[in-house]
Amino acid sequence: MDGYADEAVRTELESRRTRLAWAAGRGDESGRLRELLAEVDDALARMDAGAYGRCDVCRDPIEHDRLMADPLARTCRDHMSPGEYRALEQDLDLAVRIQAQMLPRHQLAVAGWEVAYHFEPKGPVGGDYCDVIFGETEGVADALLLLGDVSGKGVPASILMANLHATFRTLADVGLPTEALMARANRLFCRSTLDAHYATLVCARATPQGEVDVVNAGHWPVLIAQPDGVRSIGATGLPLGLFCTAEYRHERGALAADDLLVLHTDGLSEARNPTGEEYGTSHLLARLAALVACGERDPHRVLAACLDDLTTFRAGTPLDDDLTLMVVRRTG
Ligand SMILES: [Zn+2]
């Protein structure tokens, strides 16, 4: 283990020792607490002797995140006991259900907009953030369309995704303009994450009149498909979580009935074919332009056609990241 990780786990162990010693001195369960105290002392002694953090079975280093969650762990993930493995599986099943509950309903059609989306984490849970929040600003009904991508993968990324979900659900009720909303979300995200974590994210506020205010925090371009072609709105600010003082500007678009707004994450644009070529936003843009030229405007059919195009392109190459695609049509 490197010095920093060692120090973090030692601090965690010492703090547990203090709490255990305090509890053991007063409760009825002092027998079990004393056993735990002995395990903590043993771990600290192994740390002093340089023998801490190695798997009892294979002698490989135990994963750092596993030690941070349980500094008394004695095996790597590959050599967990059947009981530990079952507990991990149950936690993961629960995480999948919690993440599913944070997604918007399918078949959403409110305030002059119809939303279709596809959410496909690479593992059981992922770090893509996808939400649609209906509300009102200064008495006018609107919809906040949100799509983002948290750095990292798997369970740690899904926890940060849940953090973003709660942040935007809370801030949406305050009625801030989009750029102020993003600046506030960035400050909250900066304070609640580790240094190395960030999220790219698009927040678009859509009104029933067809106006769309887009703030793009370092995310892939927002595509707007209209009869005369597809245009894109690139980044209007930095990803969330990099600098607490980051500011954001918005770009405004006007959509007529049947115009489409399309958002995606890098599971789509960074997907590769067997020769290693990237799908890229350009393939998506070309497919969208072709669909619009044929008069196709149903967001569910557009979504399915774009995903089919991606599947054909990949020709069996597995996805390397979480994939989310959202297609929104102005209905009225
Ligand atoms: Zn092992």
Structure keywords:
332 residues, alpha+beta, Four Helix Bundle (Hemerythrin (Met), subunit A), Phosphatase 2c, domain 1, six-stranded antiparallel sheet, five-stranded antiparallel sheet, 11 strands, elongated, binds zinc ion
Detailed description of the structure:
- It contains 9 helices and 11 strands.
- It is α+β, with helices and mostly antiparallel strands and 332 residues long.
- The strands form 2 sheets. A 6-stranded antiparallel beta sheet has the order 1-2-11-10-7-8. Strands 3-4-5-6-9 form a 5-stranded antiparallel beta sheet, with helices on one face.
- Helix 5 (154-172) crosses helix 6 (178-192).
- The relative contact order is 0.11.
- The structure holds zinc ion.
- Residues 55, 57-58, 60, 75-76, 78-79 line the site of zinc ion (ZN).
Order of H and E elements: HHHHEEEEHHEEEEEEHHHE
Count of DSSP-assigned helices: 9
The ligands bound in this entry are:
zinc ion
Mean pLDDT: 90
What are the segments in which pLDDT stays under 50 over at least 5 consecutive residues?
none
* CATH architecture classification of the largest domain: 4-Layer Sandwich
Q: What's the domain count?
A: 2
CATH domain topology of the largest domain:
Phosphatase 2c, domain 1
Helix coverage percent = 40-55%
Main-sheet strand order equals: 1-2-11-10-7-8
**Global shape:** elongated
How large, in whole angstroms, is the Cα Rg?
A: 24 Å
Give the CATH class of the largest domain. Alpha Beta
